[in-house]
Amino acid sequence: MCDAGAEAEGQARAPCVSADFRQFDFWVGEWNVVDQDGRTAGRNSITLEQNGCVLIERWTSARGGTGMSMNHFDPLSKSWKQHWVGLGLILEMSGGLKGDSMVLEGTLQYLADSKVTLLRGTWTLLPDGRVRQHFVESMDEGKTWTEWFDGYYSRR
Q1: How many whole angstroms separate alpha carbon 131 and alpha carbon 153?
Q2: What tens digit of pLDDT does each residue of 4-56 get?
Q3: What is the pTM of this model?
Q4: CB 155 within 8 A of CB 131
Q5: 138: which of 35, 70, 118, 131 fits an S-S bond (Cβ 3.0–4.6 Å)?
Q6: Which residues constitute the domain of residue 148?
Q7: How many domains does the chain have?
Q8: Are 145 and 120 in contact (CB under 8 A)?
Q9: CA 13 from chain center: how many Å?
């Protein structure tokens, strides 16, 4: 019994150590973010919390708006989940690695006008250590997509 209890306690302290839980770690860090034209878009802090089980994002835009997300790997669905709240938006996305990029997609709610669209986000670690975060939006249930945000993260 003592050995089983110690094993369970060890798993409770570090339950998220498998490779699946580490797929999005390239996004962890303190970042300055610019748009595709090099203009400052904001700052982002991505921390690994809860014994490595969740990535918490804290965003501050260049205009002073804020938002945050909780990102985690769900072993039951074998997918990554993101829940974002801020800047008058609520976003629920899921997905996973496609090649070398994390790709998540889901519903985007605009709170001011109750509009709901689809948003697809792609995070890619670039060879120079930056991360590209590219979002496209669909207003016709995924038939067509338009640019929503194209940001480049550099470590502070």
Answers
A1: 5
A2: 555 555 556 679 999 999 999 999 999 999 999 999 999 999 999 999 999 99
A3: 0.90
A4: no
A5: 118
A6: 2-155
A7: 1
A8: yes
A9: 23
